[in-house]
């Protein structure tokens, strides 16, 4: 039996090395769930891969975790949406340079019944205040992601601290955008989401867009090459090439041409 | 040293053997010499210490005091290798009948052709021809015990211990096994067998060890012990009385 | 629910139309988990058997620890393996993070205690039965390990299947150390997690159905093979 086991193991080893042996150049990009779940990266990456021959491996996590993974040296490029945290990342020397890449916007979604009566508003602070006053369920990411950081910023701008109501009407899911939308859909809660994830989300159920268009809901994405002086193994040349492509005319055009339900959801704005 | 000549003959000796548990002696045998020509049968009621004595003789249990001497030497690995044992419940490997024998033969370093020939020989000896490829665990009780005896014989032991090998078998199966035991004995294998079947002792024994309460109460020629026991305990046991 | 049912059957149909990307994911899941289980067997079975027959101080404690490790949360295993394999971790230079190998390592950590603990249990029971007989035949404790493992082979196949079940169904660890990278480390469970987060619940459920189907198929295959091996082994003995 042992001989058979070993033979099988060797066979499996052969298989697994053949899995890895497709050794083409690649880079690891730590990104956010919104760029992956919306299908944007899947849409634009084939262009870059065809042109450069570089395979882009995307690890999609929350912005906070993406930044921590990059600090650990487990990324070549960071593509996230939390400008202050990104600038801190570069200031601490972990990134070479932060570049604006594109933007979309956040929207406030909630149940059709709209118990807080915020439908049609364009003032995110007023809407959040109404939700807090009505003490109706609000699902928060609660995961230190870009969206979570943005949401917390709006609460504090409205002079509110919803974490006092944590576990009551304020529900922190500690999960990704999609999982949080599933929670909101399941319990008829309000939640803040980026428009791209919302449009591509398949389980909207009873939810619909209630508040949009507030300039404060602007959602800027940035791209950063991880500093090879901090982590010598960073594939700097390939990573730099990807950053340049994204922020150059070809990449920007590719981003602009991405459509969800006929709508453009990411607006390139690299300098 | 004291009995140099006697030690030259294949012989099993026990000196001042004791096994204790919770301050009680489970086995306490001052002296026992097994050097007769034919099978030795150990008789006695449950709890007399028969199986315990057998396990001490085979080295499966080390006594708290005293020693077992085989052919003038303390029982050690070399002596144990010349012994074999058959248990009350045959313990067969979860393999075919032939593999159970092959397992033992392989350990003796026999080559493949020699093993194959020996297996065929043994199967014939045990009346198991044609069952070589059958899973050992699918044998009947009698067949399983025969296989266990064959496996013990495959070791070519000088001494074969049997612990009530027929206690769970019907008279027909018992008879087949008794014949195998007698054949082994006639080939010069020393047989030491535990039983509580007085009839079996009459059929097989050349000498009988009578035990009670952890002690050997009588040891002598079968005829003498079975027909004219000296001790009171033997008398009562043989008469079918309750002995405690 | 009517809508969901039709959506679900549409998803199943899509899957069985032979989507090559999907089947690549299924294949990767199988490769990773099968390989992980084989390594776990090579480590766990001898360790479990040794624990069953050996007697040494601390043995009881080791067994308790091993049994406890059977319930080790996958996310914690994922985190530990991440910390080991991360570039700033002690094994970072091996560049294994976000590769199938990393997922295999995580699954080995998860599965080995299961294989070892179940082996220990099975072998200990068998050893109890065999102990006197094997000693009578002059087989030492150490030499009895392969004998016991071989004679416990049918029960051990079940132990391996239990390990395989844990490996193939696990998501928490492999998503952390594999990164769920498309075409590289995306397996059945991480795909299900991704589709769920996209709100494609019907597709996620259909993928789950495939996963169950695979588990059933693997179980059936292994039991058929082991039965056949059993019969053949006896015929050639």
- Report the uncertain regions of chain A: 16-22
Can you give the helix content of chain C as a percent range? Answer: over 70%
What is the approximate shape of chain C?
Answer: globular
Uncertain residue segments of chain C: none
Distance between the termini of chain A: 65 Å
User: What is the ordering of alpha helices and beta strands of chain A?
Assistant: HEHHEHEHEHEHEHEHEEHHEEE
Helix content of chain A: 40-55%
Number of strands of chain A: 12
Q: How much of the polypeptide of chain C forms β-strand, as a percent range? A: under 5%
Quickly give the CATH architecture of the largest domain in chain A.
Answer: 3-Layer(aba) Sandwich
CATH superfamily of the largest domain in chain A: Periplasmic binding protein-like II
Count of alpha and pi helical runs of chain A? 11
How much of the sequence of chain A is in beta strands? 15-25%
N-to-C SSE string of chain C, H for helix and E for strand: HHHHHHHHHH
Q: What is the name of the CATH topology of chain C? A: MetI-like fold
The secondary structure category of chain C is mainly alpha
- Label the structural class of chain A: alpha/beta
Describe the structure.
The complex is a heterotrimer of chains A (271), B (244) and C (237). Chain A has 271 residues and is of the alpha/beta class. Chain A folds into two domains: 2-103 and 220-268, Periplasmic binding protein-like II (D-Maltodextrin-Binding Protein, domain 2, 3-Layer(aba) Sandwich); 105-217, D-Maltodextrin-Binding Protein, domain 2 (3-Layer(aba) Sandwich), CATH 3.40.190. Helix content of chain A is 42%, strand content 24%. Chain A has eleven helices and twelve strands. In chain A, strands 1, 2, 3, 4, 5, 6, 7, 8, 9 and 12 form a ten-stranded mixed β-sheet that branches. Chain B is an alpha/beta fold and 244 residues long. Chain B has ten helices and ten strands. Chain B has a six-stranded mixed β-sheet with strand order 6-7-8-3-9-10, with helices on both faces. In chain B, strands 2-1-4-5 form a four-stranded antiparallel β-sheet. In chain C, 47% of the residues are buried. Chains in contact: A-C, B-C. The interface between A and C is large, with 40 and 38 residues.
């Amino acid at each position: 039996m042992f001989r058979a086991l070993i033979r099988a193991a060797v066979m499996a080893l052969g298989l697994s090395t053949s899995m890895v042996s497709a050794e083409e150049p690649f880079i690891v990009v730590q990104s956010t769930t919104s760029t992956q779940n919306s299908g944007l990266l899947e849409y634009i990456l084939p262009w870059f891969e065809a042109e450069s021959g570089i395979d882009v491996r995307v690890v999609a996590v929350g912005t906070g975790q993406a930044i921590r993974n990059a600090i650990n040296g487990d990324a070549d490029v960071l593509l996230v949406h939390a400008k202050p945290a990104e600038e801190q990342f570069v200031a601490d020397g972990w990134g070479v340079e932060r570049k604006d890449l594109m933007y979309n916007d956040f929207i406030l979604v909630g149940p059709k019944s709209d118990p807080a009566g915020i439908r049609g508003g364009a003032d995110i602070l007023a809407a959040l205040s109404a939700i807090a006053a009505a003490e109706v369920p609000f699902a928060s990411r609660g995961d230190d992601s870009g969206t979570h950081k943005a949401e917390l910023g709006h609460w504090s701008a409205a002079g509110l601290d919803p974490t006092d109501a944590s576990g009551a009407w304020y529900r922190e899911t500690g999960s990704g955008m999609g999982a949080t939308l599933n929670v909101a859909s399941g319990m008829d809660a309000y939640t803040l989401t980026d428009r791209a994830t919302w449009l591509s989300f398949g389980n909207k159920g009873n939810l619909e867009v209630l508040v949009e268009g507030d300039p404060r809901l602007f959602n800027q994405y940035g791209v950063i090459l991880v500093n090879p002086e901090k982590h010598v193994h960073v594939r700097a040349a390939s990573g730099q090439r990807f950053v340049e492509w994204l922020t150059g005319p070809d990449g920007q055009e590719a981003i602009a041409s991405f459509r969800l339900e006929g709508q453009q959801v990411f607006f390139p704005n690299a300098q | 040293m004291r009995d140099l000549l006697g030690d030259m003959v294949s012989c099993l000796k026990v000196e001042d053997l004791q096994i204790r548990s919770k301050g009680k002696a489970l086995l306490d045998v001052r002296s026992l010499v097994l050097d007769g020509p034919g099978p030795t049968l150990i008789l006695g009621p449950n709890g007399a210490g028969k199986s315990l004595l057998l396990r001490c003789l085979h080295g499966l249990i080390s006594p708290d005091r005293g020693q077992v001497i085989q052919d003038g030497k303390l029982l050690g690995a070399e002596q144990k290798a010349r012994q074999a044992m058959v248990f009350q419940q045959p313990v067969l490997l979860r393999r075919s009948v032939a593999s159970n024998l092959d397992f033992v033969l392989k350990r003796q370093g026999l080559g493949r052709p020699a093993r194959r020939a020996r297996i065929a020989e043994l199967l014939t000896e045990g009346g198991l021809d044609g069952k070589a490829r059958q899973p050992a665990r699918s044998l009947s009780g009698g067949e399983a015990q025969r296989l266990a005896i064959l496996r013990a014989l495959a070791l070519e032991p000088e001494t074969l211990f049997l612990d009530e090998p027929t206690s769970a078998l019907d008279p027909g199966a018992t008879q087949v096994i008794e014949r195998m035991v007698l054949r082994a004995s006639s080939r010069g294998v020393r047989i030491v067998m535990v039983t509580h079947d007085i009839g079996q002792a009459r059929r097989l024994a050349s000498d009988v060890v009578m035990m009670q309460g952890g002690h050997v109460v009588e040891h002598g020629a079968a005829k003498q012990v079975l027909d004219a026991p000296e001790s009171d305990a033997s008398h009562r046991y043989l008469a079918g009385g309750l002995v405690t | 629910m009517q809508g969901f049912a039709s959506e679900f059957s549409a998803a199943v149909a899509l899957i069985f139309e032979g989507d090559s990307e999907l089947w690549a994911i299924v294949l990767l899941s199988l490769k990773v988990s099968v390989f992980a289980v084989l390594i776990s067997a090579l480590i766990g079975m001898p360790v479990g058997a040794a624990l069953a027959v050996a007697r040494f101080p601390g043995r009881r404690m080791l067994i308790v620890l091993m049994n406890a490790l059977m319930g080790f949360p996958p996310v914690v295993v994922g985190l530990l393996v991440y910390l080991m394999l991360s570039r700033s971790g002690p094994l970072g230079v091996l560049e294994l993070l976000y590769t199938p190998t990393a997922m295999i390592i995580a699954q080995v950590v998860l599965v080995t205690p299961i294989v070892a603990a179940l082996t220990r249990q099975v072998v200990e029971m068998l050893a109890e039965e065999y102990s006197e007989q094997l000693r009578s035949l002059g087989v030492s404790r150490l030499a009895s390990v392969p004998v016991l493992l071989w004679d416990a082979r049918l029960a051990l196949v079940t132990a391996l299947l239990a390990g395989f079940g844990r490996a193939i169904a696990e998501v928490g660890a492999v998503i952390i150390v594999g990164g769920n990278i498309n075409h590289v480390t995306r397996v059945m469970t991480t795909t299900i997690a991704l589709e769920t987060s996209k709100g494609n619940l019907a597709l996620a459920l259909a993928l789950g159905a495939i996963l169950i189907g695979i588990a059933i198929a693997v179980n059936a295959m292994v039991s058929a093979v082991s039965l056949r091996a059993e019969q053949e082994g006896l015929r050639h003995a």
